[in-house]
Amino acid sequence: MNKQDKKARQFPHRAAQGLWITGLLFFIALGLEFLYIRSYQVHYFISKDGYLYTNIAESFLQGKGLVNTVNFAEGANQVMQAIPKNRDYIIGPVYPLLLALIYGIFGLKNYTMVVAVLHAVLGAGSAVLAYKTGELIFGRRYAWIPYLLTLGYPLFAFWGMYILTEVTYVFAIWLFLYCLARYARDVARPKLRTLLILGAVIGLANLVRPLLLLYFPVLGFWIFWMKGWRLKAALRDFCLIVLMTVIVMSPWWIRNELKYHQFIAATNYGSYEFYLGNNPRTITNVYFVFDQPSYDPAVKERIDKLPVEEQEKEYKSLGVSYILSHPVLFVERTIAKEKNLFWKPVSPPEGQEYKMKGDFLDKWYLLLGAAGIVLSLARLKKYSFLLLYILYYSFVVSMITVVSGGRYRLPVMPAMILLGSLFFVVLLKGIGKILGVEQRAGRRA
Are 280 and 59 in contact (CB under 8 A)? Predict the structure, then answer.
């Protein structure tokens, strides 16, 4: 029997073994997700955004499309109340459609099953993707490290108790990083399928939250670098990825153009937060919106009299104008917001206020990721896609608005966990070499 025949016979066996291991890891992770959910002794948490997503999902099930029919505001005793609709909120369709699937199976407003089924499955899937990505980067021997670190990060579990997009977006980011790792492994001759899947994943991630829309310049530079500065080969890969992203997102664009007669990439709100984060009054170490004297009262009074669509355009225009007229100050203040807010660990008072569990581990995960970043510099090209994503995401989020770390840092934690895993990989390899030397010395003696 020749070598090719042996490989052909071994391949189905290895594929079946890999599928069995993946399934086992998924069900172990799913079991731990259920333990996390039970440990909170509540079925779910829901906020204004959660009610809005639910309303859109209900409208879809009732045949009205992905639209909101009411708005929500906080009433007496911090109880959320439905109020007459005063604006249309256009939100990426992925999460409302997933909610519609759960409500269609288990009944409308079944928030418990959203957490117990949808979020638990996506959380377990994220852990499996951590294992598969670790397998590509570190090898099968060490792939269990990012798997366990993902399951052990308490904020993934905590925010999974909320009817919010967090778990869905973190899963999309894990899928994105896994596809990038596959591309990096085969960068010399990547398969067409790899390029198309990567583009599709970017498109889907943007339809959950549009935070990767600005990533393409970074992605283009990275591909150009990985290709050894060969422009033609880099352009081929980059254009195919962008084309697939456009194909995935275009039905949403067409729908918005037909319904609202304007181009809406993913959402139609957020300009006020953008203005909050980009004007001379912004405080760079306080994240709570009502603590921010971030607007000129006279300007706000004038804008609040405009229709909602005009308000969004005006706030966006003011934010962009500030950035263009103060480019150096803009960068300085964005970096200050990164340092003071985005990368700041969850504090004990904040953890107690939100009734988090295990929140003290957040700072250790950040330190572990930082150690991995330092170690990765020794093999920069191999880990560059993680480093560039971390730099991009933290800067963009800090640029857009004024936010705290905890929740808004969740999508960057998959990359931090992978780099944190590098610390343990280096440590275990070092211990293995030391033990190997000692064993050889003992045999010689």
Answer: no
List the one residue out of 378, 368, 273, 259 whose CA is nearest residue 318. 273
Angstrom CA distances, 178 to 134, 171, 172, 202, 306, stand at: 9, 11, 10, 12, 45
pLDDT score recorded for residue 292: 65
Give dist(CA 162, CA 445) in Å, integer: 62
Structure tokens belonging to residue 186:
């085969």
Residues 351-373: what's their mean pLDDT? 92
Contact 240, 179 (CB under 8 A): no
Residue 445: what pLDDT? 46
* Backbone φ and ψ of 296, nearest 5°: -80, 120
Give the model confidence (pLDDT) of 124-163 as tens digits.
999 999 999 999 999 999 999 999 999 999 999 999 999 9
- pLDDT of residue 98 exceeding 80, the answer is yes
Measured distance CA(137)–CA(126) in Å, rounded: 16
Read off the pLDDT of residues 60-93 as tens digits, 9 standing for 90 and up: 999 999 999 988 887 767 677 888 887 888 899 9
Alpha carbon 290 to chain centroid, angstroms: 26
| Interatomic CA distance for residues 318 and 406, integer angstroms | 28
What whole-number distance in Å separates Cα of residue 315 and Cα of residue 268?
12
Beta bridge partners of 299: none
Spacing of C-alpha 10 from chain mean position: 37
In this structure, are residues 207 and 252 in contact, taking their beta carbons and an 8 Å threshold? Answer: yes
Residue in the block written with tokens 């275990």: 428
Distances 351 to 98, 361, 365 between C-alpha atoms, Å: 29, 11, 16
Which tokens in the block code for residue 299?
């300007």
What's the CA gap between 365 and 403, in Å, rounded?
A: 19
Given a contact cutoff of 8 angstroms between Cβ atoms, the answer to whether 289 and 276 are in contact is yes
Helix (H, G, I), strand (E, B) or coil at 191: coil
Nearest by Cα to 123 from 143, 99, 94, 153: 153
Question: In the block, which residue shows the tokens 């792939």?
Answer: 143
**Residues ≥6 apart with Cβ < 8 Å to 44:** 111, 112, 114, 115, 161, 162, 163
Q: Which of 186, 169, 343 is nearest to 266 (CA)?
A: 169
Among 252, 150, 236, 162, smallest CA distance to 195 is for: 236
If DSSP codes are grouped into helix, strand and coil, which group holds residue 194? helix
First to last CA, the chain: 44
In the block, which residue shows the tokens 């962009």? 320
pLDDT, tens digit, 9 for 90 and up, residues 161-176: 999 999 999 999 999 9
